[in-house]
Specification:
- The chain is α/β, with parallel strands linked by helices.
- It contains 7 helices and 5 strands.
- Helix 3 packs parallel to helix 4 and helix 5 (about 105-115) packs across helix 6 (about 130-145).
- The protein is globular and about 40 Å long.
- It binds shikimate-3-phosphate.
- Shikimate-3-phosphate binds near residues 13, 46, 83 and 122.
- Catalyzes the specific phosphorylation of the 3-hydroxyl group of shikimic acid using ATP as a cosubstrate.
């Protein structure tokens, strides 16, 4: 089962969606972006889900959607939201059913990419986003490591190079 299901995990703006699409195209697989999948089903953008249901509500939808995708899909590449690993049930499912690739990025890389990428992240609405990134990253790093089969350091690599490296390592 694991070979059929490849998931990219890692911090916000580490490149999971872009790399996931490139990887899926090379492997001739379908690509699913879990955040977009959630937005399509709930019919609301992620920031509005956070606003109306809070982080706890968002996490419960995310957990349900990961379980749905795991049960129904085959031969796909999935990009996940950066906080998916905060829920133990998700970590267990990612570890058991998915071949997970951790896209590891330094906080400075994340900050640069967040500035360039227009997607609003509700969890980074803070007076000191740099501190928030470092704190969240410290909380989550061991979980990304725990679920992953393979790690790629993405700071200095292009999307194509990252996809190549993943294919070599898988
Ligand atoms: C989140 C990451 C986001 C999105 C939501 C929460 C997080 O996805 O799921 O805003 O907790 O790190 P990206 O990792 O694609 O930004």
């Amino acid at each position: 089962m694991k070979d059929n299901l490849i998931a990219l995990v890692g911090f916000m703006a580490s490149g999971k969606s872009t790399v996931g699409a490139a990887l899926a195209s090379r492997l001739h697989r379908r690509f699913i972006d879990l955040d977009k999948y959630i937005e399509d089903i709930v019919q609301l953008p992620i920031p509005e889900i956070f606003q109306s249901q809070g982080e706890v509500g968002f996490r419960s939808i995310e957990t349900r959607m990961l379980a749905d995708v795991t049960a129904t899909e085959q031969n796909i590449v999935l990009s996940t939201g950066g906080g998916i690993v905060t829920v133990e049930q998700n970590r267990a499912l990612l570890s058991s059913a998915w071949r997970c690739v951790y896209l590891r990025a330094k906080p400075s890389t994340i900050q640069q990419r967040l500035e360039a990428d227009g997607t609003p992240r509700p969890l980074l609405q803070s007076e000191d986003p740099s501190l928030r990134i470092r704190t969240l990253m410290a909380d989550r790093t061991s979980w990304y490591e725990e679920v992953s089969d393979v790690t790629v350091d993405v700071d200095d690599l292009s999307v194509d190079d990252i996809a190549d490296r993943i294919i070599t390592l898988l």
